[in-house]
């Protein structure tokens, strides 16, 4: 068949068209495998050490038989082939890099696909970092499935640095995981940052689902794929950790269920790591955080002790000198903003009403620092949260930003840690206020009688109480100076105690008697002692006259234990958590008899209004007896077992004492 005649111009045009077409074909022929990686690679930061490796090696794991299979699969997606099934992937699998999170919007009813290549899986592990001074130990660890793995992985990192060329460091270093040369532990984590909302129902949105496949036949795992070739894990409160033995390429899908009552999309982070989980939720009932005390607009919270004893002073100092590693997030319990997301660091950060201050810094609402208040002088991190509302409950979760000194891409554990959410309540009335940080009564950290009209802020109120106590301590010092002690052992009033024991016992007693622990007058707990009922509340109102008539002739009920509080603070009616009786017995036992200290006996006049008894009975799941039936400086809670807040021998000694009923 003769070709149509072409003019010279037409010929040139045709030639150039053919050349262009051939160029396009050549381009695709040479470069199509790149498209499988384009999405992920473009978003990689150049400083990530895996970046170059991935750029160099995308062909390394394609030089096998499955090259063709995978090529077809990716090409089909590249040219927009619609597989026409519910829950289909809307994008090519995004390549994940070790310890780099990918944040994605996931529309309802859709699956987002990701992959972690065999090349990344077998790359070198990240070098070991300094870590915290000692691993975090939860007291009530009911289950911490992955906590131990975090520790071992740190050891692994140590070792890996030394012998990176070992043909099989895994086998030797991770005996408990019994990972073999052909498989490696991969930690896949997903956290939800935002979720759809509803204005018709209060039900929480469904949780995202994570699908994982290692089959080259299922490169887009999701709800529509064969369940035999994939594993599904539903997020719990916005978090999932899937720990797997990976052998080659790993394919992942995040699926958002479709719920027509909800509007909006999900936003989630996914990360894969061969080192340790990038995001971490401490799956234990122990929140690692407890409320020391609260008032009507502030709360004081401590972490659990970071070490179990202070016998290693180096370790103690390392913890006390550290830049505070933890943060807290809180929300009013009336608000549902963090519900369903409370195990997710980015979920808390995005949705909590009271957002963590960065380590070492102060925000308008949270002041944080390290403290060793309490029995055993154990390091803890404290949080003083202000700007709260009266008579409210708050949900609160302890968290860590990244590994506490670095966060984000390329950091092992850079996605942050979250502990089990807990809650606290604020007091109703403003005549009790939390104080802490006193210089003399340094163990005082609780709510005390207050009046915002007379002491407008915490520091002025704390300074008042500290000075008043120190002033009274001066009288004791003078009396004690005239009592022989610290001479020779035989001349001492007691073989067991010396003058410094007496000083310490008096100080502890004086601080707790001189700085009463205060709570709402409206509280109905049976062990509380009503005080100052004859005074007006700070807002000027009095209790109703019927109550007043009853208290008129009772000094204990009508005034504070210490008259100077009524004169200077004028708190109005409050209830006192009485000092523990042990404080008085300890004082009598520790000081020379010549000083004349005596304690009222239980059952005798004056005891019930002056001292409280330590609780007997039930404890919560973490061994804490949370009902504080008596107070002493440094009490934070009682442990039913193990370290007792006051040494038990003090109680034993008390029973040998035959004391009068004189009230001190
Ligand atoms: C989600 O459900 C609604 C109503 O049932 C439907 O109109 C919509 O097409 C669904 N979306 C997807 C992505 O399946
Ligand atoms: C956190 O990660 C950074 C970067 O990897 C590292 O330099 C630092 O030592 C780590 N911090 C801790 C407490 O491990
Ligand atoms: C929720 O309320 C907004 C405005 O009040 C409205 O535009 C939206 O359609 C509502 N969504 C649902 C699911 O009812
Ligand atoms: C993948 O599919 C092929 C053909 O259907 C089958 O022969 C092979 O066993 C499958 N592989 C896996 C891992 O399921
Ligand atoms: C915590 O562990 C339990 C038991 O192993 C498991 O059922 C639950 O899903 C886990 N929670 C989270 C948030 O991973
Ligand atoms: C990994 O494989 C080992 C045996 O090779 C097994 O004991 C372990 O449970 C596996 N881990 C997971 C997470 O499947
Ligand atoms: C994965 O990579 C390792 C080391 O490069 C290699 O030995 C192994 O055969 C690869 N596996 C697959 C399934 O490609
Ligand atoms: C202190 O704690 C360490 C480990 O945390 C332990 O080995 C040691 O026995 C403890 N010392 C005392 C006196 O309890
Ligand atoms: C004390 O703690 C330091 C710092 O963590 C550690 O290097 C040292 O080995 C510990 N000493 C003992 C006796 O445990
Ligand atoms: C004054 O304060 C007390 C205690 O907080 C409260 O019970 C009372 O209702 C208040 N009175 C007025 C008029 O606000
Ligand atoms: C606290 O109140 C006192 C007045 O009692 C005032 O002098 C001081 O500046 C206040 N401090 C702060 C931090 O507001
Ligand atoms: C400390 O208390 C004493 C006795 O109440 C008082 O005289 C003195 O002025 C107070 N000092 C300060 C600085 O408040």
Can you describe this structure?
The chain is an alpha+beta fold and 664 residues long. The chain has a domain at 95-281: Jelly Rolls, CATH 2.60.120.380. The strands form seven sheets. Strands 1-3-8-5-6 form a five-stranded mixed beta sheet. β11 and β12 form a beta hairpin. α9 runs antiparallel to α10, α10 packs antiparallel against α14 (581-590) and α14 (581-590) packs across α16 (648-654). The radius of gyration is 33 Å and the shape is elongated. Residues 21-90, 140-178, 358-363 and 639-664 have low confidence and may be disordered. The structure holds 2-acetamido-2-deoxy-beta-D-glucopyranose (12 copies).
Short summary:
With 664 residues, the chain is α+β, with helices and mostly antiparallel strands. The strands form seven sheets. It has a five-stranded mixed β-sheet with strand order 1-3-8-5-6. Strands 10, 13, 16, 17 and 18 form a five-stranded mixed β-sheet that branches. Strands 2-9-4-7 form a four-stranded antiparallel β-sheet, covered by helices on one side. The structure holds 2-acetamido-2-deoxy-beta-D-glucopyranose (12 copies).
